[in-house]
Write a structure and sequence with these properties.
The protein is an alpha/beta fold. The protein contains eleven helices and ten strands. Helix 2 runs antiparallel to helix 3 and helix 4 packs parallel to helix 6.
Length: 332
């Protein structure tokens, strides 16, 4: 019987390839600037290390581009028209990974038109990775391969390399992906390379027993990847893998797509709102007027506005006026 440590490991890597965020990451004004070229060179070394760890290990790479997600590489599929030529000075599997990933990334980036950049399809890439894992981890149904296939199922995990901030509108899709990962027993690891901490990816790593690491030294990316994310989940049981000290469990409201500390949940469809509403915008359920009045009376009163200096009154809008314009709609 094969032990968990000896099992092959499958790694699906999701790359956040937002041109705007990578431009900001490479600016010389940052304490530790990291360009996309330097990022790819360190990433390819990490991918090669995963392949070299065990001959049966499998790999898949997905790219989250603005508005779409693309599979960049897969061990079980050929994604380039012409395979790279053999070189006596390079290991063929390494060269296949390096050439395919680099070629397809820059080919997709070249097709992005200048202008308003849509959000990166991180949830789409995560969904594709889960579908791919579900396909390769299903045991063989043929009678001759049932016993053999059941002992060689890979230990799956997903690594997300993120540079973009949270997108509030993706709260529901990403939570559905997290629940699917839990059902498939897939570990989700997150490496936040640039930008503020992401609330949703913190929850994804915590709920799937993965690791969430925020890079303080982006110039040491390869060291972070090899020391924290190269060991599979079965080996991490005997290692001191970094864990999250604090986890932000806040959710995003369905009305304004804002992350809220205190929310109101619809009892029918479990939609979250930042303030009591007479009609649920998701399932169109009408709530009793008395219940709304009770909830509004229980809401904490807003803190009094801090007086502003006279020099700023002509240039800024008081927050009290903005809050009045976005008050709770009247009862119907």
């Amino acid at each position: 019987m094969e032990s968990d440590v000896d099992k092959p490991s499958h790694l699906s890597v999701i790359l956040d390839l937002s041109p705007t965020q990578w431009y900001l990451s490479a600016k010389a004004t940052n304490p530790y600037p990291l360009s996309i070229e330097s990022f790819l060179s360190q990433l390819l070394a990490f991918l090669n290390a995963h392949i070299a760890t065990k001959n049966e290990n499998t790999l898949a790479v997905f790219g989250a581009f603005p508005g779409k997600s693309v599979m960049l590489y897969a061990s079980t599929e050929t994604l380039v028209d012409e395979p790279p030529s053999l070189d006596a000075n390079s290991y063929p599997p390494f060269k296949m990974v390096d050439t395919t990933v680099t070629l397809r990334i820059f080919r997709e980036l070249a097709t992005i038109e200048p202008g308003d950049e849509p959000p990166c399809a991180l949830v789409g890439a995560l969904t594709k990775a889960l579908c791919y894992i579900n396909r390769i981890t299903l045991p063989s149904t043929s009678p001759t391969n049932v016993a053999e296939g059941s002992t060689h199922l890979p230990d799956p995990r997903i690594l997300i390399l993120s540079v973009s901030p949270d997108l509030s509108s993706s709260y529901i899709p990403i939570m559905n992906a997290i629940f699917s990962a839990q059902k498939l027993k897939v570990t989700i690891d997150v490496c936040k390379i640039y930008g503020p901490d992401t609330v949703f990816l913190q929850q994804a790593a915590h709920l799937t027993s993965g690791s969430y690491i925020y890079l303080e030294r982006r110039d040491a990316l390869l060291q972070y990847l090899i020391m924290s994310f190269l060991p599979p989940p079965s080996v991490r049981k005997v290692l001191a893998v970094p864990k999250q000290d604090k986890i932000d469990f806040r959710a995003a409201c369905f009305c304004h797509k804002n992350i809220v500390d205190v929310g109101f949940v619809c009892s029918v469809c479990l939609s979250i709102f930042c303030q009591p509403v007479p009609v649920c915008s998701t399932c169109r359920t009408k709530f009793p007027i008395k219940a709304l009045q009770r909830l509004k009376s229980a809401c904490p009163s807003p803190a009094p506005a801090t007086p502003r200096p006279l020099a700023n009154l002509n240039n800024t809008v008081p927050r009290t006026t903005e809050a009045t314009n976005h008050s709770t709609p009247g009862l119907r």
